[in-house]
Amino acid sequence: MKTRVTNLLGIKLPIIQAGMIWCSGWELASAVSNAGGLGIIGAGSMYPEILVQHIESCQKATDAPFAVNLPLLYPAIEQHIESIIRLKVPIVFTSAGNPKTWTPALKAAGITVVHVVSSAKFAKKAEAAGVDAIVAEGFEAGGHNGREETTTLCLIPAVVDAVNIPVIAAGGIADGRAMLAAMSLGAQAVQVGSRFVASNESSAHLNFKNAVVQAKEGATHLGLKKLVPVRLLDNPFAQQVRALELEGADANQLGTLLGHGRSKKGMFQGNLEEGELEIGQISAIIDEILPAKEIVENLWAEFKNARKQILSWHVLNS
After folding, report:
1. Among 71, 109, 173, 309, which residue's CB has the most CB atoms within a 10 Å radius?
2. Residues 196, 295: contact at Cβ < 8 Å?
3. pLDDT digits 0-9 by tens, 256-282
4. Domain residue spans in the chain?
5. pTM, two decimal places
């Protein structure tokens, strides 16, 4: 299937794996890219030397395009940028910061730049900064989220109408039905996070993967809004966050509770009591851990089946 995004990124299928901290290493990225989508290495949880190792390993594991996700507020971002340029990473997805800062340098190096936003307002600013495409991520998504709390169903058409560059839909997408819905709203591809957390190649701890598979409706909520809004899977740490917020805690109090290494403790080390567990609402329909290749294949088959079903309804009612 050819779309503006598949043409831009040089991929076969309009399926992109999100660059999630502690979950998206070279094994997952290369598996998704080899399956015809776009795999992304999540640099936000990596020291500079670790990112270099993951890029080099990914380059050995796939000849297909892959990307690095780069949170722009990362403390050692200059080192990440230097490594990305030196190692000739073809695509960078930026997030959590001002795209004006690094987009010119990345594009001068011949790198395609995609920026993640949660509103039409910031989509316009990203387009003005010169990015090549936008990821519009709705309130349903896992991890760090937008303060506007706009759902994917509302966000995608608003962003599509606001910009001229291609739009990638994210947030609440774990099967082909949601993919078809997003693309019907004008998206040219989808970015999938939570579904790939529960994959064999994900670097998430097995405890976290199993917790995602066991999650039910209402198992996540948006917390830490006075710091950086993040969607959390319910556990004792998330309950502490919620209790503090109900008491009116300020950013300093929440920051003290969060401390350092909380997300690593939960998602990478598997501490389900004290760790921060970031996952999307769509975890409620994820019921098994699968190989990344099978996830890509399932998404594509479900998308085609859903599209065929819609067309059959149209024929029946015409």
Report:
1. 173
2. yes
3. 988 888 999 999 999 999 999 999 999
4. 4-204+288-317, 216-282
5. 0.95
